[in-house]
Design a protein that fits this description.
A hairpin with a 4-residue loop joins strand 3 (123-130) and strand 4. By secondary structure, the chain is α+β, with helices and mostly antiparallel strands. Strands 2-1-4-3 form a four-stranded antiparallel beta sheet, with no helix packed on it. Helix content is 28%, strand content 22%.
């Protein structure tokens, strides 16, 4: 059996058929030099620990949230299908970029959103389980 090529190894990794550690071992065996500009492969999907089921509420004694997080996981396996982590300070930039692709968010009032988030504690904003699509969606501030 011939050695897999660098591209085949990366495809196996992206499809979740091998772990990042296995891919690293196989890539070191291939002997092809990695390009300096190539980004590292994404980590394999893992079951994310569920955040505290705390409803985000107003309060003076809490820490201001730093991250806006979205997780979409498979209900059967618990593995993440989608993981989005956005620094709260970058959300305004992200919304401006997103409005180019999704016109419905163009009318959001950023000042109102940031004002609401500054007064919120960290915790769960949305926690939905959809048995039809076999997905668990979580949106929370951390």
């Amino acid at each position: 059996m011939s050695k897999p090529s660098r591209m085949e190894i990366l495809e196996l990794l992206s499809n979740g058929k091998i772990t990042a550690a296995e891919a690293a071992d196989l890539l070191s065996d291939v002997g092809e030099p990695a390009k300096a500009a190539a980004p590292p492969p994404p980590p394999p999907a893992e079951k994310a620990p569920a955040p505290e089921p705390v409803v985000a509420t107003k309060g003076d004694d809490s820490q201001e949230p730093n991250w806006f997080r979205v997780r979409v996981a498979n209900l059967e396996t618990g593995k993440n299908r989608v993981t989005v982590n956005i620094p709260v300070k970058m959300m305004k930039f992200g919304l401006k970029i997103g409005s180019r692709f999704s016109p419905e968010i163009d009318n959001l009032d950023w000042n109102e959103l940031t004002g609401m988030m500054k007064d919120m504690k960290t915790g769960m904003l949305v926690d939905v389980q959809d048995a039809d699509s076999n997905e668990h969606v979580q949106v929370y501030l951390d």
